[in-house]
Amino acid sequence: MDHNELPVNLREDKVSDETKKLISSLPTDKDSQGNLCKYQGCWYYYNTFQAVISFQKHFQPQDTDIILASTPKSGTTWLKALTVALLERSKHHDDHPMNHPLLSNNPHALVPLLESSAPDLTKFSPSSSTRLFSTHMPLYTLKEGLKGSPCKIVFMCRNAKDALISRMHFRCKYEKIEVNSSVLEPMFESLCRGVTFYGPIWDNVLSYWRGSLEDPNHVLFMKYEEMKEEPCVQLKRLAEFLGFPFTEQEEDRGVVEKILELCSLRSLSDLEANKSGKTVNGVDHKFFFRKGEVGDWKNHLTPEMESKIDTIIEEKLRGSGLSF
Ligand code: PAP
């Protein structure tokens, strides 16, 4: 792949000498896509590491900020859409709100990634009462940048096997290569070693799990599988946590179901705004929508792979009260 076509996080030409110096003092490794360094217990491609440092130094939090956190391919796009729809609902009473931001924007354009090198975070308007951001960083690294501000943080977790398969498909679309075992196997091995972008996945997820137990008013832990299983219950839980619960009248008017419909994979992926265009990081909007199913890993992983990753994750989560 031509260097200029690489996803922004994999490009190393934007990494400054200062960052390179920092990286030389960190543990480094590789996965099948690029060079990684380990900062505060988490692996980053170099360009993203630079953005993490910049976030921690320069981000100016506001107490009303909402942060949507997840590990990659765990339902970030869905969570972004649902949260935007929740916050926008008072402005859009009619059933066909032509000016709803989700109808003309990809969810990633509405909720910027905190550790992105592309947007200038100081540019976001402080006048809007609630600002929405997203992140894939673990909670302890995020908190350093939040500098004690009591922001609400929502974390979306997904089964590691489905997230892996989702990432493989995403990568193959991006690189215009065929899905096959020679792509999957090295990605699987990296997952098992814990050396993956934003991984080890178990440490990242556990940081939010523990955070949600310690401070349930500020950290909400959600699961992709539960969102699929009982969407109404989970959407109401999210609304309540964010401080915008549904009123009885709204429930009677079917607002919960309408939001779920608007944010469904089918309706989002049918929108022109999601069929065309790219994110600030140069990724086609359409790549964020695929099957959205639970258990698609069964179509790709061998029983040996299943058992290996299950054993590792079970061991890493033992005693935490969490399974995923
Ligand atoms: P990101 O980490 O790059 O932001 P993210 O949105 O977290 O990606 O994950 C993409 C997955 O969410 C895809 O899963 P799949 O590959 O297993 O299909 C995608 O299909 C799924 N997804 C996207 N939008 C929705 C939605 N509205 N409802 C349910 N699943 C969705």
TrEMBL record:
GO MF term (any one): sulfotransferase activity
Family: Belongs to the sulfotransferase 1 family.
EC number: 2.8.2.-
Protein name listed in UniProt: Sulfotransferase
Highest taxon of the lineage: Eukaryota
Pfam family, one: Sulfotransfer_1
Alphabetical UniProt keywords: Transferase
Transferase is among the record's keywords: yes
Domain Sulfotransferase: 63-321
